[in-house]
């Protein structure tokens, strides 16, 4: 073989080897809706053992598999193994929530002097956009791309004027991307044709030891917030911004999620645990920065969360009640997962001191969320 042919062969083999292990994206069918519509799924993967499955239903994270400290990959996101679970008992597992993530008091807000009513589906309040929020609609799967560094999928949904009581036709999109640094990014954007309110976020439930593996109460959590929003019995913020210092809500330095959860603090009694918004910054969204970090001593997995949003809702899985069987065939019980939702403050449309959730025509709403997955050695190991 001539040298030129030999070198060409070597280069060709190198390209094949690289492409076999680089970031990848593929389309699948996850199930069929009652009307016969196929529900598409897109699987993103990288060369480091990470794999993410995104569903068109609710633009949802169905699973996130990532290696532990020993290189063993497991799914660490709660979800259902089939479409039936998402249809029969929706619990926001990995879902895109909107038009307004979190709660709006009494399902009512005013905009430009006009009052709007949105569906009440959480006691006396509206939660995550109402009875048919963005988590329950079939999003359109758009461009699916991959190269040596990143795999991505874009999904979109158009919510018509008056949908769930909200004004304006809202055109929303989300791009899920998985890169070779084990970073999963979720980039929400939205535009409108008339003034409206918007607050989109992702409602992934995490268990860093593996979904269905048991309690997350020993996971060590850090939240980069010096204050939080106390809530009333209906989980609506009272308007007070309270310092976390000296309270069970102080996660400025890493501590186990469950260390203070069984204290008789009235705020923990209200929500049966943590279900509150931390103040990351006041006012408008800021540049991307670290807002939370979770370390799992069992697996060595570490989740670092970055966001552009002023608030972070932390929920400690208080209402998982042992009646749900997840992707791995295990039952989910109270405290078996945590949720971290970067967003605007709850009930912002009714509380001027919280800032604004308003979106004008010609402007773009954006919420960029980045989850970075790493591992650390066992404490005390040599």
Give a structural overview.
The structure is a single chain. With 382 residues, the protein is mainly beta. 8% of the residues lie in helices and 39% in strands. The protein has helices at 3-21, 83-88, 266-271; strands at 24-32, 38-45, 51-55, 60-67, 73-75, 96-97, 103-104, 108-111, 114-117, 126-127, 140-146, 150-159, 170-179, 183-192, 196-197, 201-202, 205-206, 220-223, 227-229, 242-243, 255-256, 275-279, 289-295, 301-307, 311-315, 324-325, 331-332, 338-343, 358-359, 365-375. The strands form 8 sheets. A 9-stranded antiparallel β-sheet has the order 11-12-13-14-30-24-23-18-21, with no helix packed on it. A 6-stranded antiparallel β-sheet has the order 17-28-25-22-19-20, with no helix packed on it.
Give structural attributes:
globular, disordered N terminus, nine-stranded antiparallel β-sheet, Beta-galactosidase, Chain A, domain 5, mainly beta, 3 helices, six-stranded antiparallel β-sheet
SSE order and pairing:
Blueprint lengths: L2 H19 L2 E9 L5 E8 L5 E5 L4 E8 L5 E3 L7 H6 L7 E2 L5 E2 L3 E4 L2 E4 L8 E2 L12 E7 L3 E10 L10 E10 L3 E10 L3 E2 L3 E2 L2 E2 L13 E4 L3 E3 L12 E2 L11 E2 L9 H6 L3 E5 L9 E7 L5 E7 L3 E5 L8 E2 L5 E2 L5 E6 L14 E2 L5 E11 L7
Antiparallel strand pairs: 1-2, 2-3, 3-4, 4-5, 6-16, 7-10, 8-9, 11-12, 12-13, 13-14, 14-30, 15-29, 17-28, 18-21, 18-23, 19-20, 19-22, 22-25, 23-24, 24-30, 25-28, 26-27
Brief account:
The chain is mainly beta.
